[in-house]
Amino acid sequence: MTQFLQQLINGLSLGSIFAVLALGLAMVYGTLGILNFAYGELIAITGYTMYFATQAGLSFWLSALIGAVAAAVASILMQLLVFRPLQGTGFVTLLFASFALSQVLQGIFRQAISPRAKGIPAPEVLSNVFEFGGLRISVLNVVTFVVAMVSLGLFALFMRTSRSGLQMRAAALDLTTTRLQGVSAGRVILLAFALSGILAGIAGVLWISRTGTVTPTTGATPILVAFVAVVLGGLGSTVGAVVGGFVFGILEVFLEAYLPSGVVPFQFAFALIAVAVVLFARPEGLFGKAVEVKV
Amino acid sequence: MSGRLRVALVGALITGLLLAIAVALMASTGNKALAATAVVLAINVALVVSLQTFIGNTGILSFGHVAFMGIGAFTAALLTIPPAAKKTQLPNLPSFIRDVQVPPLPAVLIASLVCLFVAALFGLVLVRMTTSAMVMATFALLITTYTVLLNWADWTRGSEGVYAVPRVMTPWLALAVAVVFIVIARLLAATWMGLQARAIREDELAAGATGIRVRASRYAFWIISASLMGAAGAIYAENVLAFDAGQFSFATTFALLAMLIIGGRESVLGSVVGAALIVLVTEMFSRVEQGFSIGGFELPRISGTVQFVLALLIILALIWKPDGIVGRREVEDLIPGLRGWAERSTTPTPGGVPDRSGFGLDEVVLSGKNLSKSFSGVKAVQEIDIHVARGEILGLIGPNGSGKSTLLNLLSGLTAADSGTVELCGVDVTDQSVHSRALGGLGRTFQNIRLFNHLTVLDNVLAPPRSEPHEAAGLLDQLGLLDVASAEADTLAYGQQRRLEIARALSTQVSVILMDEPAAGMNEEESDVLLDDIRALAAEHRCGVIIIDHDLRLITRLCDRIQVLETGRTIAIGTPDEIVQNRAVREAYLGDAVGAEDHEGGM
Amino acid sequence: MGEQLVTSSFSTASTVVADQPVIAVTSLTVRYGAVTALREVSLEVGRGEIVGVLGPNGAGKSTLMRTIAGVHKPVTGQVLLEGRPVVGGAPEKAARAGLRLVPEGRRIFGPLTVEENLRIGSMSRGSTLKDDLEAAYDRFPILGERRSQSAGTLSGGEQQQLAIARALMAHPTVILYDEPSLGLAPRIVDQIFELIAHLRDEGVTSVLVEQNARLALDLSDRAYVLGSGSITASGKSSDLAKIDLAQLYLGKGAQR
Fold first, then answer.
1. CATH of the domain at C102
2. CA distances in angstroms from B573 to B396, B398, B399, B560, C251, listed in the order given
3. pLDDT at residue C11 above 60?
4. Which of C93, C120, C130, C132 to mutate to test the interface with A (most CBs of A within 10 A)?
5. Mind listing the pLDDT tens digit for each residue in A227-245?
6. Which of C:152-171 have CB within 8 Å of A?
7. Which of B514, B602, C54, C117 has the greatest CB tally within 10 Å of its CB?
């Protein structure tokens, strides 16, 4: 039982990062129908920004803040420089362009910074562990969970109560009718990319705190996780993305804990197969709606 | 051999010839590096063509094919590496694998079969998803396979990789392989399977409505393409001789997709052009990556240059030509006269109109009983009965929002009824899917034209499963479309597009055809001609017709019977004369009571 | 029945005001791919008028409204709103210039609450939201009762009221109504039309697209009849009402 609770806590902590990640990806998909493959590179951008900031002598916390902002700025630039010129070319072209963009960015990291991992030392307080009724809970796990939940809460609050949030919810439902109310499409789209970037930044900070390093391909795992969580939750559903993130995080931790040691390296593969089984039963995902075609 | 297959074969051979010239030029220089590049080019062509078979025909982007390349490569390696070498590399390999050595060709075939099996399993989940979810699922497949290959060290040696695969590849053998792949891909695309897959690519919904099985088609292309990819992966292994799991991840996926998309994803020629271009660029920049000196300035060795430059080029290419360099064209489209020569006697000639005079005219072919449907509380259709007999034309009219289109969707199976039953030719089809009903003899046209836009006019009527090739030309002739038979559907004028939709519906051996505003957007003369055609076609094909239109004049002239709907209910049903005189109808249509006294003589 | 259709009586219509028209459309042609949806359409709407646009389905009425609202980009011709050209493809600009489209099929945001729908209507304005909401609930008490319900649960008539209320939140100078009677019971249609008349009295210029010709002609000052993308007749509504409507638009001018 303790073992189970222990894993649940670890799973919730990891899942909360995944939830934030998936939400950011779902954000842009919901508004624009773009699956941004280069979303993972926003995590790397956060990491490199944190690396340079800490190298310049800034505190870890300040660096983290700057890192998250950098991801938001980068996300906006992606829209302006790549996606906007390709507007109207269709899902496949946009998806592939974002894939290419992710390769360009990885190339830049490799050339301009280093192909090797750069360390970002997290403050020692994060690695402290306190024991609680037989459970070992690290400060990092708690901080991760709290930061992720607060972020998700603030995001929900923003979307529910602010003018801009309302505009974005309306735009995701029906962009043309929203524009007919005087809401600028360009502004809503930029805002979607900015929010997506901030979420990537927050998830990035949490991810980097966990791994302690950043490499040119740091974004690979996060983007995969976000993809899987978004499909698992149901494409186009932000709630689904968050739930999908949590489910996938918990699944991964439990597989790691309970799989026989010989197959633990395949843990990720097992998690994906489990998701495939869910999708076989429910192809539209946990929170997705079967598409109603209008003729 | 049908003309289509002959064109494909000729096209494939010419495409192969172009590749052969390139390979010959490189191999004949005597430069070892260039000869090696020639082999790389040919193998890349095989890989990209395999990928193209899926992406080009189905229109679904796959990130997962490199997984099959990896599975194929490792299968071939495990089968061909001499047992002695296997013993040192992979001591934990089970003996039944360790002690065998298979010749190169059977190894390729076995690799292909292994991939077929894996794809068949994964495909069960894949084809149930929406197309965007499928893209992500293929990506997950790539990662899963990569993880397995990397960690299953007893079989793959993980990141260290395997070596000592016996050498077989020469430039000429590699070229032969590439040509075989090109021929397979072109021929496959030219069969009815390819045609149906492309019809789905163009319009999933319309394809289903003509009886095409969407999931089955995607599944077939998925496993065929995966088997090809597995074979190509095995051949890759038999060329590089030593490799590790790392080869089957992002970088390769990216390079292959780049070749495909830059060349033109809907064309086999595009795959060849794309492969040639990218291999060339890669070779050039690999030199940079090795480090070299310009004017005494020593450039450092920079890794990742190739990928970076490629990626940048791709973004620019996408902005410049989103459909790729050759677009949808194949080689025969680029050489004037070639297609005509290859098609020769197979150009469609009218004739062979079906004889359906045996069908009785009073047989009810389609009936709906007590049909109801609500959408989020709004009762769109309430307890409607409707029926139509062979040769009869039933008009369905009513103000906007009266439920006509919903009723049509209930009959065709696109929308499930809340209650009520639908019978097609005496069979209860209430629980049948759209394509089953289509196969049962129900055709339809759509309010907003839904053609297979990038297929030719002829292909539009050939794609439906029950289409009879020898009748297609006659059908096009009847609808005045024979002259434009080889034009792409979306280049037609509006009126022609409407007619093509009717031709496509008729090509499925229909017993009944549902037409949703076929005359919408036509001027008076056009709709008059259409009217005569519909009447003639209904009589000749002995099919029942249910037609929605707002134009009372057209409906009253065309129809044998008219059924009037308002707010989801039938308010009148009768002959055109009865309907025109009907007070309720005039009220529904014109607003409050328009007395007949205003204009004696009526409409 | 050989009477000529009344045409170009615009210059003689008494409702024309001296100052510039609120909407001036000149030789507008709009295409979707191979389809020409509108051919050389010209029309004007004066301040405070209700102008009807009639015609069968597929005649191009909705396309005309959407083009005036800036959704579509015309091939030729232009739309002037208060003398300023409407930018095709940027509907938010026309909306900010004081134009509102009450679209066909209402297009309310179903998953959002009634109040959120109304708040989106006021997005082009900065302030006095509270007063506007109160005014909307005064005008449409049923919306006030259901303010925190999701809009998709409203009945058809209530949804149409919401669509109009949403438009009014912007204090528009002109409202385009695209088939407001669509799918509504006659009693509800009467209420909606009374409302449109009432809004005109408050100074809102209106364009009314209707399939229900009698209703539209009763309410409007002038009307245009659209057939196959072109204007086939226009004039004072009272004049148009005298001729055979069935002939005019159900039968595309021909007879059996």
1. 3.40.50.300
2. 9, 11, 15, 11, 20
3. no
4. C120
5. 889 988 988 888 999 999 9
6. 166, 170
7. C54
